[in-house]
Every structure is written in structure tokens, then in C-alpha cells.
């Protein structure tokens, strides 16, 4: 039996989570691409997202969905068009990065954000969406674009690709036509036709490139309004070339391009801005680099933009780390956040500490250097983002306090570490014991930094002996593989960076520790609850939901647990439906049997107890059915719940009952012992409930007495 769409969605989300943790995912692709062909948006959306992340153009499964993607783009459903175009944008980004292998764009912090690969950020020159909002001179961009980055804007998705205009035939156009097979006779290209008043020449380079692929009548010039891209009055700017697609076909749609016609839409925008190889070379970062250099120790050279092996001592990387992190922290604090011990606030604390550590160890900066950069950053960005100026004092104060606290911890910890490492070296060893780590009292990531700095006690190339959190325990494991980040190797040594795949580990899973223990505990509660029923199950579900909502556990894990709770709720609803049917059958049978006995005995009324808890529907149905069966017979049905000590009561008296006998005249005094209240009376039916169910026998006796007096 195949998976349902809901089960497929859960399955592929888990696949994506595994992929995000860094593992190869070579299974479940069929379920992923099948969701793209689904008719409902929720399934199609998941299919597109996961396919974009997991598959490339060489994957056989991706080829299976090309027709679906093409149909979604050509079709009339704008939502599906957006999904398809977004996937194309993501796929193009990956292809562009492969074209320009000399530069590897990597996303860094975006206002208040944080790149998951914090330890690797700034090692390469980064291309950064956020930088497009920075402060540049409006007309400073040169139109000599042979070395300019192209910013690909597509369906509200901005992806910065370091590719050249001349590479269009290998990237964007070929991707649209050769991979997604959009018909070429429905594609139009636009380019910047120049602006004499602004002193801007036509973009003939883009025109000439497009004429290699499209006829002259489908390569169209436009002015600044449509084909000169700019971010506000002071933001980055540059000529752009766009790709438009005629959704109808078999016509000349040139007049509809850039004319707000829904049948001829822009699907791609290529923007050429700034004669810079990196956003770190722009006037956003250069003032920061100058300020950092003034704070650096003697002999530290100015920032030179070197990366990789050219960046000896990782000095330029340290410049980028410090500059990028002061930007991230400044915006985050201005937006109301601040470094702390949990969640996103802990991420900010790690960012700050990383910047301070790099400043001291790589740039030889003095204590307190980091917070002093706030003044420079606010001066650079404050005009564009006034919230920085409004919160400048607060930003600087928080960073200064955090920086001082960390420097104090770092100084004490390093002294302890140096003593422990020197002791190990004197004894001919190379591995710190768990007990030594407990003495140092520093987090594992700081110890890792210190181990790399203090080569006398290194961790690289050693057997897989891991320092456990338990201060007097050491764990050993078998090395199954060595991974460099791009390939598996047979051996490694020296200063190479590599990772070890171990047979077993003493460490918690990703985002483990107490969070994972809590998640396991909640899962156990859910499994136990599935064995319960009725009110006990309902109460347990409420308790689990409260615990789960407040639990600080990974979002994917929490989503899985909430899905399991939903199944419990479904179980409870089904149980209630079943119990409701059974209660009605039970109450009706009890009432009819009692009414039949009363009639055979010549009694003019019937008072009974139906054991169906507080199920008012069942009690009411019992009264109605009995009165239908035995016309003219007044009847009152009581039911109680021991757990809550409450009672529900329904009574029915025919309109033509003798002696003016009315239902409320019977119900109201009868339920007084139950501390009850009643109401109704329409059509001879009334209901009540009481808060003292233990006195139900007394109430039933009173009801019998009242009916006997009235009816004889």
C-alpha cells in the first residue's frame, strides 16, 4: 500500500533534515518528485522545495519532472508558476557557482541572521544579498562589466551569482531552454537602451549576447524605468537585462513586454552592478577594515582580500569575520535581540565570541576593540538604517559588556589550558584527559580553538579518542572513514582539515543533550497515552500538548511529535464517536425497558438512572424515544459521573398530562438535592445538571414523590 500525500510530505521533510545535517541522501527521490505532480498546493510546494535542495540537473529523477515544471510555468496558475520558477532559480544558482569555481559564494549573516556554517564563514569571499541594501554612490557603478557579478532576481528570490555576461549561453538561457525546454519562440529579452539625460550609454553588450540566441524582433530596448535596476536613491544600481515569456504563444507579443500584461510575464532579471569582485571590497566594509587595522597589533598588514592558501595566517579571514559579525550583532541588537544562553540569543553570543577571539588571536587586537567598532559601523550605515543611530548607545553597551565578560573568561581559561597542555607535553602525551578539561572549564568549541593554536597538544591526526563531558571518562571508537569535505581519503596528517566517521560516539545527536532527552520523554508519554481511552486519554493529551508547546527542542523533532499528538486526538475523536453511539443505545434501551415495566405495572410515570456519564445527547435521546414509544407517559432520566461527581437530568411530560402537570414543575424541585439548575420546557422537554452526583438516589426519590402526588 502506497504512502498518502501527508505521509510523503513527512517522509521528504525528514530526508531534507538529514541532508541539512550534512549527510548524502540517495533514497526517497521518487516520493519527492511525485509530490511535484500533485494537484494540491501543499504537496506540490513540498515537492518543489525538497527537489530544489536535493537534486541537480544530472539526476535522473529530476529529468522525470521536467515536463511538470514546464507545464506549471506555461499554465495559468500563478502560484504554481512561482513554485516552478523558484526551483529554477535555485538550480541556476548551483550551476553558476560551478561555472565560476574560482570563487565560491556562500551566504553570510542577513540582518539579525546567522549562517549555519559559522565556523566556515568568511574563509571565502562571500556574495551576500544583504549587501545590495548598503550605501553606495548611485552613479558610481561603471558600465565596463566584463568582471562584474550578475545578480539574478527571480520571482522575489534574489540569488547572487558570480558569473560573467559572456557565460549566459552556458547558464541562464541554456537552463531555461535545454533543461526546462521552454519553447524558444515564446521567449523575449530586454536590455537597457541608454539614457541621454542621465549620461548612460546603451547596454550593447547584453544586446549582442541575446542576438546570438534570439531574432532581432524579440530583443527589445527599454529605458531606465524598466531596465536600469537601482535600490533607492542611494543604493546600488546598474543596467539589467530581462527574460520575458509569452504564456499564449503563436503571436507577436513584443508590444506586451513590460506592459503589465498577465499573458506576457517577466521570469528572469539579470542585474550588473559594481566593478567589485566581492561585497567585502565595497565601501560598506572598507571603512570597517580601516578601523580594524588601526586597532590591530603591530605588524598586521591592512586588509588585502586574500582567501584560501593565499591568506597566510588567516589574517584577511579575521578581518572579514570581525567586520561581518559587528554588522550582524549591531542589527540584531537594534531589532531588540541580544546575546544570551538559549536559542537565537546563544547564536548571537557565539558570533560575538568568535569575532573577539579572531581579533585577539589573528589580528593581535587589544581588549575592548570589538565594541569600539560600533561607532564606525553606525557612521557608515546609520543614514540608511536610522534604527542604528537610535540604538547606538544600547548596541555599544551590550557588546562592550559581553566582550569584557568573554575576555575575562578566555584569559582565565587559556592560562589553565596552557598549564594542562604543557603538563601533557612534559609527560610525552598528546591528548588532554577528561579530568584536565574539567579543570579548564571551557566550552568544547573554545577548547578546539585553543588546541589548534597550541600545537603542543593537537587533535588532528590522532586516534579517535574523544574527551567526554564526564570529567573522568574517556571514550574510544574505531575510525570507519576520513572525509575532507569533498571526498573520502585513506589517511590524513599534519595541518589538513578533515572529519572522522566513527563506528560509535559518546556524544548526543545534533542539538542533543537535555533537549533530546525531553523529546524522548514526550514521545514515551505519547506512546503510553495511545493505550488509554475516554476522559483519561483526553486529560493526558492536554498535558502532553502543554509540555510540547513549551519544550525547547529542534523544530523538525517538535513537528514530528505534534503529528503524533494529532493522531492521538484523532484516536480520541473516534473513541468519542463510538462511545456516543454506544451510550445512546444503552440509554434508550434502559429507558424503554423501564417505561415498558412502568406501563405494565400501571404506573403513570417513570423515573430511572442510565449509566452513561455526562452524555447529555444520550440522556435526551432516551427521554425522546421512550415518550415516542409510550404516548402520554412522563419520564425523567438521571445519569452521573463518579470522577467529577456531577449529574445530568432530562425530563419529558406530554402537553396533555393530567392535573396541569408541567415538566419544569417536576424537574426543578427534583434536582434540588443535587445542587442542580434546570431550564427548558419547550415541547414538554427540560434539562438540568447538578454538582453533587452523590445524592442522585435522594433526587430520584423526590422526583417519584412529586410525580405520585401530581399524577396519583
Supply the key terms.
712 residues; alpha+beta; seven-stranded mixed sheet; five-stranded mixed sheet; 23 helices; 47% helix; 12% strand; elongated; EC 6.1.1.7; aminoacyl-trna synthetase
Shape: elongated
What's the number of extended β-strand segments? 17
SS summary, helix count: 23
Helix content: 40-55%
The CATH first-level class of the domain at 581-711 comes to Alpha Beta
Give the biggest beta sheet. 7 strands, mixed
Distance between the termini: 67 Å
Which CATH architecture of the domain at 581-711?
Roll
Coarse structural class: alpha+beta
Give a structural overview:
With 712 residues, the chain is α+β, with helices and mostly antiparallel strands. Among the domains are: 279-404, no CATH class; 465-507, no CATH class; 514-577, no CATH class; 581-711, Roll (Diaminopimelate Epimerase, Chain A, domain 1). The protein contains 23 helices and 17 strands. The chain has helices at residues 5-20, 29-36, 41-54, 60-64, 66-74, 78-99, 172-179, 204-210, 224-227, 286-295, 315-334, 343-363, 369-381, 386-390, 392-426, 434-440, 444-453, 514-529, 534-550, 555-601, 616-629, 663-670, 696-711; strands at 150-154, 157-161, 187-192, 219-222, 228-230, 237-246, 264-272, 465-467, 474-476, 479-483, 488-489, 499-502, 606-609, 635-641, 646-652, 676-680, 685-690. The strands form four sheets. Strands 1, 2, 3, 4, 5, 6 and 7 form a seven-stranded mixed beta sheet that branches. Strands 13-14-15-17-16 form a five-stranded mixed beta sheet, sandwiched between helices. Strand 13 (606-609), helix 21 (616-629) and strand 14 form a beta-alpha-beta unit. Helix 13 packs antiparallel against helix 15 (392-426) and helix 20 (555-601) runs parallel beside helix 21. It is elongated and about 110 Å long. The model is unreliable at 95-122, 124-165, 434-441, 455-473 and 508-512 (pLDDT under 50). Belongs to the class-II aminoacyl-tRNA synthetase family. It comes from Aegilops tauschii. One of its GO terms (molecular function) is tRNA binding. Residues 99-514 form the Alanyl-transfer RNA synthetases family profile domain. Keywords: Aminoacyl-tRNA synthetase, ATP-binding, Ligase, Nucleotide-binding, Protein biosynthesis, RNA-binding, tRNA-binding.
